Fold this sequence. Notes:
By secondary structure, this protein is of the alpha+beta class. Among the domains are: 23-62; 116-175, Head domain of nucleotide exchange factor GrpE (Nucleotide Exchange Factor Grpe, Chain A, domain 2, Roll), CATH 2.30.22. The protein is 54% helix and 19% strand. The radius of gyration is 39 Å and the shape is elongated.
Amino acid sequence: MAKQTTEANVDPDDADTNSxxxxxxxxxxxxxxxxxxxKWARALADLDNFRKRVYREMDDERKYQSVPVLKSxxxxxxxxxxxxxxxxxxxxxxxxxxxxxxxIKQLETALGxxxxxxxxxxxxxxxxxxxxxxxxxxxxxxxPMTVMNDxxxxxxxxxxxxxxxxxxxxxxxxK
Length: 175
């Protein structure tokens, strides 16, 4: 039968034979320490590899982020090539004009597919956040500070202005 030991009736001889010695405890603690140290080193190496992989993927993403835009613009470039070639063969101005107009519509569709929208400027009140005034013209037909003409179309991407519209703004006509 097994002896039940309590603090009151502990046999000193039994304590020495059943419990590990101080040297054995030290060896066990050192072994456990080495295991944890190895796990730590592996975790650190895994973290370093993960960090390197993420940076490499971010660099690739930045490097090739314009691929979808380029893929949508290449057919437009091809359309312009075809329009120029057809115009050089037939010398027909109307056909060239029609081809270029179709290409512009194709370009507007491609830009819209990427979230870019043209800024509507003509007839609108001048807004320095959306418009860049390149000239002011006196006008009795338009209220002062109204965009009369859109010289270069501006674009927004979602809610950010990519390029402001270059516009001609009306001013009060001299009396």
